[in-house]
Amino acid sequence: MPAISVKDLKKSYGSVVAVDGVSFEVEEREIFGILGPNGAGKTTTLEMIETLRDPDSGDVSVLGMEARKNARAIKELIGVQLQTTVFFDNLTVWETIDLFGSFYKTRIDTGSLLELVSLQDKAGAMLNELSGGLHKRVSIALALVNDPRIVFLDEPTTGLDPQARRHIWDIVEQLRGREKTVIVTTHYIEEAEFLCDRVAVMDYGKIIAEGTPNELIDRYSSESNISFRLTPHLDDDTVAGISGVKSVRSNDGGYNVTTETPQDTLMAIFSTAQANDATADEVSMTRATLEDVFLKITGRSMRE
What we know:
The chain contains eleven helices and 14 strands.
């Protein structure tokens, strides 16, 4: 049984269709990402799964329980980090976590939780003294306070600097080690590729692609780019004849080729150089990313 099952979920606000027939499943103990630009419907989808918002139609099952009929029971088993959390600024970090823990039948020891999110040295700090990155870590700690089986992280790193973002990624990786099921929404391509076992790409209220990052890249944008230099320079026709090369761009002795068989093409580049008494150097390869997948599917880059 999947941890989460969503079938034909729909939600509109007047004439605005926020979620338009979304369906997917999340397996237990996997990190599942919903990747899409702002306004794609990611947060609304999460809120309906979390039983925080009623869908217009469709079915949601969480840990085998129908969401509409078992909202209270589901809330005991999930942890939710919202995009924006309002804190009591006159409480310390320790007091805040301790307070939220008192709301649940099951809870994690406050000290252990502070250690998990690397806030043990901020236990006595007031909430209004914390940076944005530390605020996010407190939010995640509150999502974990009841030792949930499923953790929802809604845009957990938006607005953070690269170092603070990496801290959040480390926490998510620790949740993998604790065998939690994690649902992450994000509009950061790198975040989805780094963290997620599987990704659903969402735009304008619809899931437009789903799979592991590698599966999506292979399915929609399988080409790799290889750049290199040849000394002496060879003509473009010779380079175009290298095994696997689909296109060639050259400039001042440098080349950039596309290929769907990068390993074979790399070997053929050196073989061609040797056969023509040339030297191949400055060789580098870049694979397609989920950004390329989004561009291929929609015809445009990810919007903020």
